[in-house]
Structures are given as structure tokens and as C-alpha cells.
Design brief:
Blueprint (H helix, E strand, L loop, with lengths): L3 E4 L12 E4 L7 H8 L5 E9 L2 E6 L2 E7 L1 H9 L10 E6 L5 E6 L5 E5 L7 E6 L3 E7 L6 H14 L2 E7 L7 H9 L7 E3 L20 E5 L6 H9 L24 E4 L5 E4 L12 H7 L1 H7 L16 H8 L4 H40 L9 E2 L6 E2 L11 E9 L4 E9 L40 E4 L2 E4 L14
Parallel strand pairs: 5-7, 10-11, 10-13, 11-12, 13-15
Antiparallel strand pairs: 1-2, 3-4, 3-6, 4-5, 6-7, 8-9, 14-15, 16-17, 18-19, 18-20, 20-21
């Protein structure tokens, strides 16, 4: 029996009487996902249509619902942020007696469109999940960016979905067929589809990718016409649009959220915000497929580890010299290769640091607690003593606090001086000065020395005295008072 969900034709996902009904099987629900959901019979399935700061809009059998994240999902996200649900995910919902609905589990993803997060972090951000095809949307007006197309195609190949190249706004180009042939050279093996959402031209080749049970994802810059394409495929205005800026011809970044929009009589399309900078997290396999021509040439080199620089028998250098491979495409491939190698090294270093930190934490937790003695005073009043954890080798220790003044930093220091166990060396109460004589009855000075190593040390305050840092007895006559 098919599972039916009531989904509105607007992006607000409110339930009304005139809402259209969509079978969840048309959104991609199949026997494999149903078998996974049967393991947890107390939850019902649904597909995430939108996420707003941790609150998901989920299309379920009873219609769209708003659901927060359950404890299991939050625990998985604490380990890896890519485990958070996103548009296109299939989830299991749980209902509570007092009314709230929570996302209790995210079903395994078959495909995922992941890019590197902005900044210095090495984690990834999932743009959309469970896509059957990813369309790289590039406008032909004012001018297509070939380097951006190659980068986005690498990301689309790495997602596991089928990549497409959709050229929009062809009604503004003088010869769109010539542009399509030119860009087909930078997208080997990828269908190139010129369309015009404004005039409804070229939409028929896209219809099979949004058929029942299929999901099409759109990826491209702001102002490329992705939202207009969604409206054309849905047959209604479901996503807001704006005109591009006349000054530079760039988009206005109208769509700021990722949304899964059901297509009447078919599957669904996922609209993503315009991407201004897309970092490749780990796309070596996707890069090889996006640059299949260079990968094929590299397989013909004499050496398997050929760097394609000055090695003899390099097929790539021969193709460059013969003009069969353009220098621009070769430099683009090398640039993306360096970026992926850099990100891979950063991620491996972070994972190694996390493993080392985990081992250290485990060792600290497994280490038995050291027994501590009660702090007390000796009979002579020489000061407070405590055990150093060395058993019978523990000796009374006098603590004197001071500051090491550096050029720009004041570092608190504790100077510890070990004292012999002789009561006649203890300073009487109320006396001023060090607790030991400069020259004891034996004639040989036993005053301890202070060894402090620092490159910018100037002065040390000890017991109200200022002294230069040097290897000198703490009770020597070099102390001077200010």
C-alpha cells in the first residue's frame, strides 16, 4: 500500500484543504529503506525538506511536520557535524505524549553533496543528500566561468550522483549551441543541456531526472537561475527570485536555505543557495572523473609516479607540446590536485591529534589517584609542608611566590627551595629575612640556588626583595632592596 503525504504547493509547508497529495514512493521511498525502518517499528519515516537552525521540516505520511533533533542525532553530530540531517535525508520520527516530534535517526545516505567548510576548519558541510543527479547550473550570460564549472563538476562526481551541466539563460546568447559545444570539452562524459527557464526552452531533457522516485539537485553560483529553474519544473512559483545586479551581472543571493521541492506527478528537486567559494574536501576520485582526459593521458606515462614535469616518456607533457591538451585545463587540474592534497594532509593531522588526545585522556582516567597527606606545620614553625608523592624521600618544602617580569608578559612562578631537616636552621617566628643563615656552623654555605631558564627574564620578586635572575644563593648578599 503506498505511503501518501500531503504537501502544499508553497514553501511554507502549511497544511490546508487544497494541498496536493504526493506518494512518498515518488520521493524515493523503496523496499530497502522500508526494511531499515522496520527495525524501529515505533517510528515513522519521512524526508527532510528544509532545516532551520536545528528544526527540520519533514514530509511524512501524515503531512509535513516540524521536528527537532533527538538525543541520538545530537550525539552523532557531536562526533561529526556531517551527521546532522539536511535537505534530502530520510529520517525516522518519534512522537512524544505531550506533542513534540523529534528526529530519532537518519537513514544511511546513498549519495551526499559535501563541500569543505569555510575558514580553517577541516570538516565538511553536507549541502544535500540522496540525490540521483546533480546539475551544475552555469549561466551563459554575461559569461560562463570554465574554472568554476570544472570545480563544481568535481564536487558532483565525488557525491556519487550522476553529474549534469545545465546552461541557463540561453535566450540571452547569440549562439547557445556553439557555447554548449565549447563547454562540452571541459565536461567529458557529462550531458550538456542548454535551457531557458524564462521561456521554457530545453526543459524536456530535464524531465526524466525529476521523474517518480528521482531527485535532482541544483548546484551553482548566485544569479545562475536555479530558483527560476525550480519554478519552471514545479509549474508554480515556489522559490523567490530576483534580477541580477546591473553593475557587475552577479546574483543577489536570494535563496539562503536548502529546500526539497516535490514536482507534481514526479519526484523532487533540491535547490541550494548560491555558492561563492567551494572547497574540495577529499575529491580525488571525483577529480579524476571530472578530468578524465588528463587521467587517461597520465595512464600512458612511462613511470607510474610521474610528476608530469620533466620526466622522460611523459604522455601529458607530449600532449601539451602537441596542443592536444590546453595549458589552462592542465593548470586547473594541478591547482585542484594541490588543494586536495593540502586538505587531506590537514585532515589526517587533525585526526592524528584527536587520536593522541584520546589516548592521553584514557591513560589519565586509568591512572590511579595519588594519595595526598594532610598539609601541616612542623614543630619549629618553618613553614607548611606536604608530601611530594615520593614516600620516604619526601622532604619539607618551602613555597615562595613571585613574578618573573618579561618584556610584555608577567608569568607567575613558584620558587621551591628544599630545606634540610635541622631545627636550628628554622627561622624564629617574627623574624625577617631568609629562614637559613648565610653561613651555618659548619662554615660551608648550604643555601639552595635558584635556576630559572628564560630568554627575557629581568627581575624576580622573592620575599619582598627584587633581584636579578642569576645562579646565586637565595640568601646571598647580592640581594638588594628598592
Amino acid at each position: 500500500m503506498p505511503v501518501v503525504a500531503r504537501v502544499p504547493a508553497t514553501t511554507s509547508f502549511d497544511t490546508r484543504e487544497d494541498d496536493m497529495t504526493i506518494d512518498l514512493t515518488a520521493l524515493g521511498w523503496d523496499a530497502e529503506r522500508a526494511a531499515y525502518a522496520r527495525r524501529r517499528g515505533d517510528h515513522r519515516p519521512g524526508r527532510v525538506a528544509r532545516v532551520d537552525r536545528g528544526v527540520c521540516t519533514v514530509l511524512g505520511a501524515d503531512g509535513p511536520v516540524r521536528a527537532s533533533l533527538g538525543g541520538a542525532v545530537l550525539a552523532a553530530a557531536a562526533r561529526d557535524l556531517t551527521n546532522l540531517p539536511c535537505a534530502g535525508d530520510w529520517v525516522l520520527l518519534g512522537s512524544w505524549p505531550d506533542g513534540p516530534v523529534t528526529v530519532e535517526a537518519v537513514l544511511p545516505r546513498r549519495t551526499a553533496l559535501v563541500r569543505r567548510t569555510a575558514g580553517k576548519d577541516t570538516s565538511g558541510q553536507v549541502l544535500a543528500a540522496n540525490l540521483d543527479a546533480v546539475a551544475v547550473v552555469e549561466p551563459v550570460h554575461p559569461e560562463p566561468d570554465v574554472g568554476r564549472i570544472e570545480r563544481l563538476l568535481s564536487l558532483a562526481h565525488e557525491s556519487g550522483a550522476r553529474p549534469l551541466l545545465v546552461l541557463t539563460k540561453v535566450d540571452l546568447a547569440a549562439d547557445p549551441a556553439a557555447i554548449a559545444r565549447q563547454l562540452a570539452a571541459v565536461a567529458p562524459g557529462v550531458p550538456v543541456l542548454p535551457v531557458s527557464a524564462e521561456r521554457g526552452v530545453g526543459l524536456d531533457p530535464l524531465r526524466p531526472f525529476v521523474a517518480a522516485g528521482s531527485t535532482l539537485g541544483l548546484l551553482g553560483p548566485s544569479g545562475a537561475g536555479k530558483s527560476s529553474l525550480v519554478n519552471a519544473l514545479a509549474g508554480a512559483v515556489v522559490m523567490p527570485t530576483q534580477a541580477i545586479r546591473r553593475v557587475d551581472g552577479k546574483g543577489r543571493h536570494t535563496t539562503t536555505w536548502r529546500a526539497l521541492v516535490p514536482v507534481p506527478g514526479g519526484g523532487a528537486v533540491v535547490d541550494t543557495p548560491g555558492v561563492r567559494a567551494v572547497g574540495l574536501l577529499d575529491g580525488s576520485a571525483g577529480l579524476d572523473r571530472a578530468f578524465a582526459d588528463i587521467t587517461e593521458l597520465a595512464a600512458g606515462c612511462r613511470y607510474a609516479d610521474c610528476a608530469h614535469d620533466a620526466e622522460p616518456g611523459c604522455a601529458v607533457r607530449d600532449a601539451l607540446d602537441a596542443g592536444e591538451l590546453s595549458v589552462r585545463r592542465w593548470e586547473s587540474w594541478r591547482r585542484l590536485q594541490r588543494e586536495i592534497a593540502f586538505e587531506t594532509g590537514r585532515r589526517e593531522a587533525r585526526q592524528a591529534a584527536e587520536r593522541r588526545g584520546g589516548w592521553r585522556s584514557a591513560r589519565r582516567r586509568a591512572r590511579p589517584a595519588r594519595p595526598r597527606r594532610q598539609v601541616g606545620s612542623d614543630a619549629g614553625g618553618a613553614g607548611r609542608t606536604r608530601s611530594t608523592g615520593c614516600g620516604d624521600l619526601a622532604r619539607p618544602m618551602r613555597l615562595s611566590c613571585g613574578n618573573i617580569r618579561t618584556r610584555q608578559l608577567v608569568v607567575p612562578v613558584v620558587l621551591a627551595s628544599f630545606m634540610p631537616r635541622r631545627r636550628d636552621l628554622a627561622a624564629p617566628r617574627g623574624s625577617v629575612g631568609p629562614p637559613w643563615p648565610a653561613t651555618p656552623p659548619g662554615g660551608e654555605s648550604i643555601a639552595p640556588t635558584a635556576r630559572i631558564h628564560h630568554t627575557h627574564q629581568e627581575l624576580v620578586n622573592v620575599g619582598g626583595h627584587r633581584t636579578k635572575v642569576a645562579e646565586a644563593p637565595l640568601g646571598a648578599s647580592k640581594h638588594r632592596s628598592d
